[in-house]
Amino acid sequence: MVRKLNPTEHRARRNRTRLKKLAGEGRLRLSVFRSSKHISAQLIDDEKGVTVAAASTLDEAFKKSGKKSSDKEGAATIGKLIAERALAAGKKSVVFDRGRFVFHGRVKALADAAREGGLEF
Question: Is residue 2 one of the residues assigned to a domain?
Answer without folding.
Answer: no
